Amino acid sequence: MKPISCQEMGELLCDYVSGELAPEQAQQVEQHARICPPCAIFLETYRFAARVGQLLRGDEMPTEVYARIETAVFRCIRIELNPPRPNDDG
């Protein structure tokens, strides 16, 4: 099975959490989460946010909320993979 990148993980989160991924893709997400602590944290945060949204609304989380969470996750992944460098101008 081909490993996935952090970016691919982020792209698959919504479908994974909602149970809409093909079994092979779901396994890729699970495998990546096992070897990448930051993505494992993002996955758990995403799951938690989805559960909270369902509890608060009593139904599925709105698509725009998923989109906002996804955007935040991508931003965090980019920061994690490319941390800001200290300013050399001192």
Architecture blueprint of SSEs:
Elements: H1 6-17, H2 23-35, H3 37-57, H4 63-81
Helix pairs in contact: 1-2, 1-3, 1-4, 2-3, 3-4
Describe this structure in words.
There is one protein chain. 72% of the residues lie in helices and 0% in strands. With 90 residues, the protein is an all-alpha fold. Helix 1 (6-17) crosses helix 2 (23-35), helix 1 runs parallel beside helix 3 and helix 2 packs across helix 3 (37-57). The mean pLDDT is 80.
Provide key terms for this protein:
90 residues; 72% helix; mainly alpha; globular; single chain
- Strand fraction: under 5%
Global Rg: 15 Å
Cα(first) to Cα(last) distance is 47 Å
Could you describe the largest sheet, including whether it forms a barrel? none
Shape: globular
Number of strands: 0
Question: How large is the count of helical segments?
Answer: 4
Count of the separate structural domains: 1
Fraction of residues in H or I helices: over 70%
Poorly predicted tracts of residues: none
Characterize this entry briefly.
The protein is built from four helices and no strands. It has helices at 6-17, 23-35, 37-57, 63-81. It is globular, with a radius of gyration of 15 Å.
